[in-house]
Write a structure and sequence with these properties.
By secondary structure, the protein is α/β, with parallel strands linked by helices. It is 33% helix and 16% strand. It contains 11 helices and 12 strands. Strands 1-2-3-4-5-6-7 form a 7-stranded mixed β-sheet. Helix 2 packs parallel to helix 4 and helix 8 packs across helix 11. The longest helix has 23 residues. The protein is globular. The N terminus is likely disordered. Bound molecules: zinc ion. The site of zinc ion (ZN) has 5 residues, from loops.
């Protein structure tokens, strides 16, 4: 589906309504206060769900065997509602996905449903990158969980208690544990990654909820510590902010991001994702922000980013300044979909970052 012609929100909304009616999915909105933004929980495929609205998108693997694995944790102020939503989901799956007979009890022969099962623990958290809208819930959600003992986390247990383990690329830990800027609070110890990797990719050491999970580093893209998380059996890829179909790509130059890294990473996503038929369907891609996507969405987005990069590069070759590039409206045909004149990531900010990133690239 094309990014501008199809929003996944509409289809899963109907699906979610059905699932709600069936008692399988609970909107957290029932419990939230009126000022808080709504959280939306979507089943993606198999054990994988997406929780949207807590900051960056959160990807959830939930199962009766292993419990819960999260990709990102949203903003700190939403952590309680995120935890409640995850626990509701986990509890429902644990309670209802088991044999129940009508004539249980006295005279019956079947299993007695003795009550609501407790939710399964959060075992692992994977952070796609360093930004607070993706790691803000780390402390609360990790403390609410419990790691497996033994294996590759045994060495951390003395440090981290028995909280859920937090995985990230080592650049994420380096940035989070660096001395905070004047006036900024230090990141709490329990929010820091407990396990890091520095190689191009790392596999989780064992199956989780029946599938392999691979963490794939994307160098100098949105930041210098970006991780794609691939669920191999469900065929779902969580991208973090490398792919944000709701806006132009956010290039965090101060934290090692670059335009070329983003384009390379988008091409890597397209290498991993396999469409079902003519670029539609197949691998589901959960972006850092915005709607659940497939290969067609990513390809369209990759083309857009590449085209705008080329336009700005040509303008720079003609000697145009950044202000002249902004005034030339080189993104006009895409602004209706990705542009913004207000808020954190305006079109002008995108052009400034893109221009600067190309300047830095030219100096190399
Ligand atoms: Zn980000």
């Amino acid at each position: 589906m094309r990014n501008n012609s199809f929003k996944y929100w509409s289809v899963p909304a109907a699906l979610v309504a059905l699932l709600c009616a069936a008692g399988w999915i609970n909107f957290a909105s029932a419990q939230q206060n009126q000022n808080a933004p709504p959280l939306e929980l979507l089943k993606v495929r198999g054990n994988i769900y997406a929780l949207i609205g807590a900051g960056g998108n959160i990807t959830i693997s939930v199962g009766k065997e292993d419990g819960v694995l999260l990709v990102d944790t949203g903003l700190a102020q939403n952590a309680d509602r995120v935890l409640e939503t995850i626990n509701n989901l986990s509890r429902r799956l644990a309670t209802f996905d088991q044999p129940i007979t009508q004539n249980a009890g006295a005279g019956g022969s079947g299993t007695v449903l003795t009550g609501i099962e407790p939710p399964k623990p959060i075992r692992y958290i994977i952070n796609t990158h360093v930004h607070p809208d993706h790691i803000g819930g780390n402390e609360k959600l990790s403390k609410a969980g419990a790691t497996f003992t033994g294996g590759n986390v045994a060495g951390n247990i003395g440090d981290a208690g028995d909280n859920a383990a937090i995985f990230a690329h080592e650049n994420v830990l380096n940035r989070l544990s660096a001395k905070p800027a004047a006036g900024q609070p230090a990141i709490p110890f329990a929010a820091l990654p407990t396990d890091t990797y520095h190689v191009p990719y790392m596999n989780m050491s064992h199956f989780f909820n029946g599938e392999g999970v691979r963490l794939i580093h994307q160098p100098n893209a949105h930041t210098d510590g970006d991780t794609l998380v691939y669920f191999r059996y469900s065929d779902v890829l969580a991208t973090g902010d490398i792919f944000t179909p709701s806006s132009y790509p956010i290039i965090d130059l101060d934290r090692g991001g670059s335009i070329q890294g983003i384009i390379d990473a988008l091409n890597n996503i397209l290498d991993i994702a396999i469409p079902e038929f003519r670029l539609e369907g197949g691998t589901f891609v959960i972006p850092g922000h915005g709607h659940i996507s497939d290969s067609a969405d990513v390809a369209y987005y990759r083309d857009m980013v590449t085209i705008i990069r080329d336009r700005v590069q040509d303008a720079m070759k003609k000697g145009m300044t950044v202000d002249q590039v902004k005034a030339a409206h080189l993104t006009m045909d895409y602004d209706g979909i990705y542009g913004a004149t207000t808020g954190f990531w305006t079109t002008d900010k995108f052009i400034e970052a893109l221009y600067k990133s190309l300047q830095q690239q030219g100096k190399k």
